[in-house]
């Protein structure tokens, strides 16, 4: 399952980085100045650089890139260890999505000092915080992990429960 999870992680990272490169090119380069283009009445493409964590919390430049980068690196290492022990294909894909998303955002922090967000959904003047494909991969991976933990687990066998299975 390690190979499956790593393949999903690589695909998520590549999709995230490719989408961010296209967006940066669309908005004219690697600068992180906020920009917005209306696409529909409920969706905009934006260029927003977030040096904080989810939804812009703790969004301060400087040491945040280093601190949050180190935290993300430790989480990725822990997830890789877990992935190496997983026997479920579904869970391997879920962990791979989280790893890929975390690596995609980590690359941004190391390269730019902030994470590039660009998907801006809104209802009138109420805007959901902008996000990117890495954030989506992390969200979907965590939801899949929860689903696996709550619904897809099978009860342990007699041998796993320590019961005598001898005839």
Please, could you describe this protein's structure?
The chain has 167 residues and is α+β, with helices and mostly antiparallel strands. The chain has one domain. The protein contains four helices and four strands, in the order αββααββα. It has helices at residues 2-26, 63-85, 89-112, 133-150; strands spanning 35-38, 43-50, 115-123, 126-127. It has a four-stranded antiparallel β-sheet with strand order 1-2-3-4. The radius of gyration is 19 Å and the shape is globular. It starts with a helix and ends in a 17-residue tail after the last helix. 30% of the residues are buried. The mean pLDDT is 86.
Keywords:
167 residues, 4-stranded antiparallel β-sheet, single chain, alpha+beta, 14% strand
Series of secondary-structure elements, N-terminal to C-terminal: HEEHHEEH
Domain tally: 1
Mean pLDDT: 86
User: DSSP helix count?
Assistant: 4
* Percent helix range: 40-55%
| Shape descriptor | globular
- As residue ranges, the low-confidence spans are none
Name the strands of the widest sheet in spatial order. 1-2-3-4
N-end to C-end Cα span:
34 Å
Radius of gyration: 19 Å
Secondary structural class: alpha+beta
Percentage of residues in DSSP E strands: 5-15%
Total beta strands: 4
* Biggest sheet descriptor: 4 strands, antiparallel
């Amino acid at each position: 399952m390690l190979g499956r999870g790593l393949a999903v992680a690589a695909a998520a990272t590549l999709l995230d980085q490719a989408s961010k490169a296209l967006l940066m090119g669309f908005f004219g380069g690697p600068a992180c100045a906020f920009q917005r283009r209306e696409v529909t009445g409920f969706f905009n493409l934006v260029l927003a650089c977030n040096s904080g964590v989810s939804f812009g919390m703790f969004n301060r430049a400087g040491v945040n890139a280093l601190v949050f980068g180190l935290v993300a690196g430790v989480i990725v290492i822990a997830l890789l260890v877990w992935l190496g022990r997983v026997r479920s294909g579904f869970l391997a894909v879920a962990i791979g999505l989280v790893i890929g998303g975390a690596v995609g955002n980590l690359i941004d922090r190391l390269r730019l000092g902030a994470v590039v967000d660009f998907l801006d959904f809104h209802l009138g003047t109420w805007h959901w915080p902008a996000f990117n494909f890495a954030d989506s991969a992390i969200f979907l991976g965590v939801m899949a992990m929860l689903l696996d933990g709550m619904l897809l687990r099978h009860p342990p066998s007699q041998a796993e429960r320590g019961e005598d299975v001898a005839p």
